[in-house]
DoxX family membrane protein
Amino acid sequence: MNWRRVTPLVVLTTLLSVSGTASAHVRYVVDSAEDVVSGLRFLIDVLSDPFNAALVGGGALGVAVAALAYLRFRPAARDLAVLRGTLSGYDDLVPWMLRLSVGLPLVGAGFAGYFFTPLVTADLRVLQVAVGFLLLFGLATRVVALVGLLAYLAGLVAEPALLLSGEYVGGFLAIALLGGGRPSADHMLQRIAEDERTLYGRFDPVHRAASWLHARTDPYREYAPTLVRLALGFNFFYLGFTQKLFAPGPALAVVEKYDLTAVVPVDPGLWVVGAGLTEMAVGVALFVGLFTRATAATAFTMLTLTLFGLPDDPVLAHVTLFGMVSMLFITGSGPLAADERLRAAAFGDGSRTGADGETSSASGPNQRV
C-alpha cells in the first residue's frame, strides 16, 4: 500500500469525522422526524408529476450522454491542451489565491460580528480579524491556517450550523500544506533570512526554526487540490441535500420572493428539487474528482447566477467558495481522483491527463516558495 498517498486522505477523513459529530445534531439538519417525512413527501409529490419527472430524468440523461460522448470522441483536444498550458502558468499564484479567498471573508466576518457563517454570531472579532489579516499578508501562514482550522472545529462542536461553511476545512488544510507562496511576507522574509550577510539574516530565528515544518509538509503539497476538492464536494452536497430537498420551505419562499418561476416557467417545487439535485450532483463530481475543471466551472457559474439572481445573498460569505472553485479550475483534481482512473483507462500511459482533458497540477503545489 502506498502510505504516502493514503495518509493525507486518512487525516482528512478524521477531520471530517470530527465535523460529523456536529451533524449528529439532527435538530439542526431538520427540526424533527416529521421534517424528514415532509421532505420525502415533498420530493415524491414533485417527481410524481410526469412533466417534472420527465424534465429531471431528461436532464440527468442528457448530462450522462454528453459526458459519455465526450469521453468517446474528445472534441476540442487542441483547445484544451492550450488551456492547460495557460493555466499551468498560474500555478505559483494558487497559494495567494487561497489566502485571499479565506482571509478576506474572515476579516469581513470579524467586523460584521458573525463566526464564519452569517447564521452564527459570536464575539470573536479579534481572532477572526487577526487570522484573516495574517493570511492576507502571508505571515506565519501555515501556523495561522492551523489556528483558524482549530477555531472552526472548536466552534463546530458547539454550533453545528457551522457545517454550512465546511469548505473552510479544506481551505485551511490546503494553506497549511502550500504555505504563503508568493507574494507573501513569509516569502520576502525567507529570502532575506537566507542571506546571512543581511542584518535580518544574522538574527532571524523564525524561518530557520520553521524549516522542519516545511520538510514535513512539502511531500504532501500535491494533495492540496484533493483536500479542497473533498471539502467543496461535501459542502455542495450537504447544502443541496439539507437546504433544498429536506428543507423545502425556505427554498420555496426564495422562489416566490424573487419570482423565479417568471425566469424559468416551471413548478416552484421543481425549481427547488432541480437546484438541490444539481448542487448534489456537483458535490459528488467534485468529491470523486470527475471532470474536475468542468465541474469547477459549473460551480462557479452557479454561484455567480445566485449572486446576481438573489440580491440579498451575502456576497462576502461566498468569497471562499469562489476562490476554491477557481483554484480547482487551475490545478485540476489532484491525486486520488476519478479523472486519474479514466485517464489510465483511456490512454494507459504515465501522464496525468484527466477525464476532462485536465492535467493534475503537481508542478504548482509542489513548487516550494
